[in-house]
Amino acid sequence: MKNRIISPSLLSANFTRLSEDIKIVEDAGVNRLHLDVMDGHFVPNLTFGPFIINDIRKVTNSHLETHLMIANPRSYFDDYIDAGSDTLIFHFEASDDIITDLKYIQNRGVKAGIAINPDSDYKKLLDYTEFLDYILIMSVFPGFGGQSFIESTLDSMKFLKDNTKNSNILIGVDGGVNLSTIDKVYDTGIDVTIVGSGLYGAKNIKRRYNKLVLNDQ
Ligand code: DX5
Ligand code: ZN
Fold it and tell me: What domains are there in the chain, each with its CATH number?
């Protein structure tokens, strides 16, 4: 079995004790963190911006993947790169020039990713594989943690994994991943799962992490 990479979504962490909540998952084995940026326009919810990410950067060496759920993402790339993102992900639905945007991010020395909503045409992503480091398949409609996994997105996972086998593109899955859905998600061959409420909602976060990683053994 290939190692499961879990990228905890800090959206479900306790923001009054964020550095402890980061340390708990890192002690359990995490080296990648998922940061959900929402603007109240592209999605009907508002979270945090570069200021908080800059502070998170100071307390962790983990790979920071920043998921921009914002309109007009290009205007903010520099802010999120300067704040310390290692991978910057914008939405397929929010960009009118995907290749230019991907190249811009890569030219700044940061990995470039596209997130795609459950109802968008995921096959179109194959047009951009040459410029992509990361694909984030949304298995819920973005905006909130704690939503139910949308089963039909399993098809896009299999399709995109099968069709990017000869590349170095990482494929992540975001939304509704928890103890009861994680096995079927990894069965599609994808590389990374984002887990928010399914991890930080647990009484014992470390034990839950171990269960998520080892579920099918
Ligand atoms: C949804 C966010 C997700 C979310 C995942 O809009 O992009 O990253 O925080 O949370 P869970 O795992 O609770 O679905
Ligand atoms: Zn996310």
Answer: 5-214 (3.20.20.70)
